[in-house]
C-alpha cells in the first residue's frame, strides 16, 4: 500500500513540475521507469497469487494499469 501511495505522489510531483516548467525529459523518463517497474512487479505478484488459488479480479486491474504505464513509458522514451 505504501508503494502505491509513493507512485501516486510521483504522478503528482510530475504534474507540479510540468506546471512550473521544470519537468525535464530525463526526470520524467526516470519517474516513468520506476512506476512501470513497480506495476510490473505488482502484476507478477498477482499472477503468483492467482496460481495459489486467489481471485483473478486483481489481475485484470493490475494488467490494465501496467499496460497504461507501459504505453506512457513508450511514448516518453520515443520522444526522448
UniProtKB/TrEMBL annotation:
Q: Where are the transmembrane segments?
A: 28-49, 56-75
At the top level of its lineage, which domain of life is listed? Answer: Eukaryota
* Name of the protein in its database record: Uncharacterized protein
Per UniProt, the keywords (alphabetical) are: Membrane, Transmembrane, Transmembrane helix
